[in-house]
Backbone:
């Protein structure tokens, strides 16, 4: 998740940025735009007092999952999280609609959630999207500690109206159906870390 070269301070800053830009901006009084951007100066002045612009630039550059984007907009340095938002105001992210895929769409999860998933399907819960990786060897979109891997039948899901998107850092996203779910009928297969197939029918 974090590179070996990152200090504890940088890891703490990365986690704090993730929280603020994905979930806590409005609660903490930050002016977050519909495209997810917040000015770096506002972050430093309101929520990240002990850090500097250089600290933020370094954390963004060294994050191996490319969670953040820094951009200078009209002469002002701004930052956003590339995906993972629970803030409903965020609706103008730079997301590409996927019409066809040549890779596996995989969601990583844990045994403790499996009984609920195989009954109800995958849920976006409080987030805006369910996250997927583009294959097992793809670091973005997949927790390295995941115990179960759910493969999605993209063709069938797309035929039934589910929309899959791709973020700027190559994470596949789907909001699910009207209830925020991807039902088990769209699962191709579910396997454990050691390759065991699980029944979900």
Residues:
């Amino acid at each position: 998740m974090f590179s070996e070269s990152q200090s504890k301070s940088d890891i703490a800053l990365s986690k704090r940025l993730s929280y603020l830009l994905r979930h806590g901006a409005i609660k903490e009084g930050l002016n977050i735009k519909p495209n997810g951007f917040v000015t770096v100066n506002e972050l430093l002045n309101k929520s990240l007092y002990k850090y500097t612009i250089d600290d933020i630039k370094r954390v963004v550059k060294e994050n191996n999952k490319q969670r953040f984007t820094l951009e200078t907009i009209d002469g002002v340095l701004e930052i956003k999280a590339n995906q993972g938002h629970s803030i409903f105001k965020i609706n103008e992210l730079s997301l590409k609609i996927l019409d066809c895929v040549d890779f596996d769409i995989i969601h990583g999860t844990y045994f403790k959630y499996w009984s609920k998933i195989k009954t109800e399907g995958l849920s976006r819960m409080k987030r805006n999207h369910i996250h997927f990786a583009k294959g097992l060897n793809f670091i973005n979109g997949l927790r390295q500690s995941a115990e179960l891997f759910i493969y999605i039948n993209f063709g069938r899901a797309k035929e039934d109206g589910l929309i899959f998107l791709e973020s700027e850092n190559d994470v596949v996203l789907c909001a699910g159906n009207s209830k925020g779910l991807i039902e088990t009928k769209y699962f191709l297969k579910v396997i454990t870390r050691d390759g065991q197939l699980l029944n979900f029918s």
Notes: The two ends are 33 Å apart (CA to CA). Helices lie at 8-24, 40-46, 53-62, 111-120, 154-159. The chain is about 25% helix and 20% strand.
